[in-house]
Amino acid sequence: MTSRAEIRNFEVMSWMTINFSPAELTTAAASFAKKSWPVRPVGAAATLPPAMAAVCQVCHQQNFVGGLAAPRLAGQSYEYLVETMRRYAEGERANSPEMKTIMAAISPAEREAIARYISGL
To answer: Which side of the chain, N or C, has fewer Cβ within a 10 Å radius?
Structure first.
């Protein structure tokens, strides 16, 4: 339902859910809420986080588990993370002005290091 309220406007989800009824949205949300995150090998992210990752944790929470302010990042693929950060930095994604500003200020190499770290969580 957040896509309709445009709290987190994400074009992929918006076009897929635009015609869902409230009951269908509730069913889909309940289904996703029951899913557990994939188990990662112990020590997968044993390295220290890149320095700029601390900026991301302000909203995405410790260990990047997400919360009210921002979605979970832990467990997302490297490719998804680095591409999403690039799209924010270059202004292709405009649903969060804060993310656009933050990602534009972080170098591509730093974004790649952050994505590599988070994808290992």
So the answer is: N
